[in-house]
Amino acid sequence: MYNSTPLLLLIIFVGYTDICSAEGNKTHDWDILILTQHWPLTVCLQWKESLPQHSCNLKNFWTVHGIWPTKLGTKGPEFCNSSMHFNQTQLEPIEKQLEQYWTNIHNGSIYTLWKHEWKKHGTCAATLPALDTENKYFGQGLKWIKQYDMSNILGKSGIEPSNQGHTPQDVWNAVQKSVGKNPTVQCFVDPKTKKTYLFEIRICFDKNLTLTDCDGIKGPSDPTTGIQTNCPLQKTIIYPSMLPPEYSKPFYTITTPAYLQHSWLLEALRIIQFLQWVTL
Ligand SMILES: *[C@@H]1O[C@H](CO)[C@@H](O)[C@H](O)[C@H]1NC(C)=O
Ligand SMILES: *[C@@H]1O[C@H](CO)[C@@H](O)[C@H](O)[C@H]1NC(C)=O
Ligand SMILES: *[C@@H]1O[C@H](CO)[C@@H](O)[C@H](O)[C@H]1NC(C)=O
Ligand SMILES: *[C@@H]1O[C@H](CO)[C@@H](O)[C@H](O)[C@H]1NC(C)=O
Ligand SMILES: *[C@@H]1O[C@H](CO)[C@@H](O)[C@H](O)[C@H]1NC(C)=O
């Protein structure tokens, strides 16, 4: 009797690992696609806060961040097929449009974002024949950003980058009203100023590429309204307008005379520049 215990444990253990590996295959399943658009100025603000030397490729309209296949209630799947390499040549026919509407806001190669999105999300979306090549996947993003452009959708409800005082609920309502399905609204809370910036808006599609509610995707939601957002609902949010021209260049001015470098004066100038920018 005692002697059979290790065997029993072994059987249980083997059974357990079997379940795990079955679960393992299943993790590449997904339910819906999230189309995430982001507001370039907020992306840039976040990027510069992580390192002031960072620079941005700014746009004054919403751009695509990605198309993310998602299993409801969980994150991912991600990185589904390592043999589907990113090949930038395949994007040549649509590259000019991608540069406009699926921009790498961060400084660096224009291909960095596309490669990342393809490896992490595109290889999972590729189980759909409609999205099984780079050209189809990125081309779909272009179609959707034209059809569901948030600059236009928010504008129709009077939400423009220059006019402030809107709440996350106003933004959510504007999108819901326009697309007829529940979106997700994401904010960036500036760790330095504690101000809340409008950051991302997500709308969702089923496997027929038809709009569907984003309900059930993983992420925070407001406990009273059920609205999917990480924004504090009671606070107004900043939807920043165009940055001054100096912020489309590297943050540290390249033309600084050598004698000023690392001096207290330059530090003071940097702080003033920064304050001017964040208090826009
Ligand atoms: C897991 O993968 C194996 C082989 O690839 C397959 O036979 C099995 O049916 C899969 N299990 C599930 C639950 O998908
Ligand atoms: C991964 O991609 C390769 C190359 O496109 C393809 O032949 C293979 O079937 C894919 N594997 C899975 C599990 O989808
Ligand atoms: C990338 O795609 C181009 C155009 O389809 C093709 O000619 C080239 O062989 C591909 N490169 C790789 C490394 O697969
Ligand atoms: C962006 O710019 C910073 C500062 O010049 C540099 O350190 C960083 O490597 C750049 N990032 C990329 C991806 O090129
Ligand atoms: C997609 O469309 C087909 C045919 O109209 C339908 O049978 C199917 O249920 C739809 N799938 C989803 C996920 O809505």
From TrEMBL:
GO terms for biological process: RNA catabolic process. The active site is at H65, E117, H121. It holds the Pfam family Ribonuclease_T2. Keywords: Disulfide bond, Endonuclease, Endoplasmic reticulum, Glycoprotein, Hydrolase, Lyase, Lysosome, Nuclease, Secreted, Signal. GO terms for cellular component: endoplasmic reticulum lumen; extracellular region; lysosome. GO terms for molecular function: hydrolase activity; ribonuclease T2 activity; RNA binding. It comes from the Eukaryota. It is found in: Endoplasmic reticulum lumen; Lysosome; Secreted. SUPFAM superfamilies: Ribonuclease Rh-like. Belongs to the RNase T2 family. This is Ribonuclease Oy. It comes from Zootermopsis nevadensis (Dampwood termite).
